[in-house]
Amino acid sequence: MTRILIITALFALTACETIEGAGRDISAAGNAISNAAK
To answer: What angle do CA 10, 15, 20 make, to 5 degrees?
Structure first.
């Protein structure tokens, strides 16, 4: 039972890191477009 909880927690943390990284990429792309427009 403990092993299942640990594996689930690791997958959740990995997913959060992936989403956070994607958010940073999208934000950087938006800033680049904004700067190009200026």
So the answer is: 130
Alpha carbon distance 20, 36 (integer Å): 24
Each residue of 2-25: pLDDT tens digit? Answer: 888 887 777 776 776 676 777 777
In sequence order, what DSSP letters do the residues of 1-38 get, joined into one string? Answer: -HHHHHHHHHHHHHHHHHHHHHHHHHHHHHHHHHHHH-
Q: Is the pTM of this model over 0.70?
A: no
Residue 20 CA, chain-centre distance (Å), reads 2
Q: Hey, what amino acid is at 1? A: M
